[in-house]
Amino acid sequence: MLFTCEPLLTRVVFGAVGSGLGSVPNRELVRAIGEMLEAAAAHGWTTPLDIRPLAEVEAAWNAEGSDRLVLVN
Fold this sequence. Notes:
By secondary structure, the protein is α+β, with helices and mostly antiparallel strands.
């Protein structure tokens, strides 16, 4: 006796649901990000930064072992 899955596969209903940025209203997203940042600050979370003037962009860009680079004008 020969069994085949072909009829079964052609009858399966398949749907995909995504959840990108469009699934949350911007107001709620901004509020949630704000709450997350407040909680991070309250628990002492920090990010090491290397803040330098924009005029030093070449030296800062080529520096080895620096933290996250932030250029300010």
